[in-house]
Amino acid sequence: MQPDGATKLSFKRWYERRLVESHVWLVSCILCALGAFVLLDDFMSFRRSGLVMLLTLAVTYIAGLVCWYALQRYRMLMSEAQRVAEASTCGACGAQGQFDVVAPASTPMSVR
After folding, report:
1. Which of 68, 81, 98, 110 could form an SS bridge with 18, CB 3.0 to 4.6 Å?
2. Overall domain count for the chain
3. Is the pLDDT of residue 75 over 80?
4. 45 occurs within a structural domain
């Protein structure tokens, strides 16, 4: 377990930033999905020339790919934050997220 940035930031700040970043990806996913549905509706309802329909379909496909990537990124960031948060509780005193990194290069990371 070696979260990126946990050596430079405190655990709580790293955790907050990770949650904010993951939720930005979720909002991006929702916006791309809405854009893809609007473009798909436009594609299905209007009769236009072949080039305009092809471009609309291509942009819809790209919006769908971005939506899928954003969802995968959200899931990865949230699962990493959850995994690290579950392992951040001290077994001796029960404090959560209050540690200093001793050896960041070791696996698992050595903390105090």
Report:
1. 81
2. 1
3. yes
4. yes
